[in-house]
């Protein structure tokens, strides 16, 4: 299936370092999309000051997209010395976080939203000043009233395009919510997977000072962080190892249940 992938800067720790890291992570995924010859459509891109990124969302389609990216969802931690002001010897290592969200894109048949349960709001796009994208109320916010789930799009000049895109994102979020409840019912021990963006819940650490990336779920370590964040073979390798680990765990649970 296609997926909607979102990146969001950490809210409570790290300041600008979180926003810079979020942009670098978004660039990494764009590199991986190119490396895998997938297609993507940008839904939202909210830049921060000094070249950082608050939030971005893209729809990615291609061969086995969800299979490859499903394990990227969670809290990613960065450790680095900020590249400002004093020499690196006089600066301490700063730590920040960002969150990746990977939502499988449902088909229309999966999620039906009744018109009485839907509210559509329009507002002026928050694009660059002076561009026609923000001279009319073309941005759209879709609200699912029973659950309070919200999705918005302001990427296009056409209100109709923004509406269609917001509804696709809304269906994906509702689908993920339903699947999350089903998973919680059948796998109660894993109901904490969504996380709270806390550093203690990080799935991977990117230590720029020591040129090291560590995936805490499988104990994977690589020493070439620049190569890893180019979004090519090194990222593909850890994703392959995560898939294999997941399959081993699933087989083990099956054997245990049969026993």
List keywords for this structure.
single chain, Alpha-Beta Plaits, eight-stranded mixed β-sheet, three-stranded antiparallel β-sheet, globular
Secondary structure blueprint with pairings:
Layout (H helix, E strand, L loop, with lengths): L2 E7 L6 H20 L3 E9 L5 E9 L3 H5 L4 E7 L13 E11 L13 E6 L15 E6 L4 E5 L5 H28 L15 E6 L4 E4 L4 E3 L2 H4 L4 H26 L1
Report what the structure shows.
- Belongs to the prokaryotic/mitochondrial release factor family.
- It holds the Pfam family RF-1.
- By secondary structure, the chain is an alpha+beta fold.
- It has two domains: 3-108 and 187-258, 2-Layer Sandwich (Alpha-Beta Plaits), CATH 3.30.70; 115-185, Double Stranded RNA Binding Domain (2-Layer Sandwich), CATH 3.30.160.20.
- It contains five helices and eleven strands.
- Strands 2-3-1-5-4-9-10-11 form an eight-stranded mixed β-sheet. A three-stranded antiparallel β-sheet has the order 6-7-8.
- Strand 9 and strand 10 (212-215) form a beta hairpin.
- The longest helix has 28 residues, at 159-186.
- It is globular.
**Number of strand elements:** 11
Q: Return Rg in Å.
A: 20 Å
Note the total helix count.
5
Question: How much helical structure, as a percent, in the residues?
Answer: 25-40%
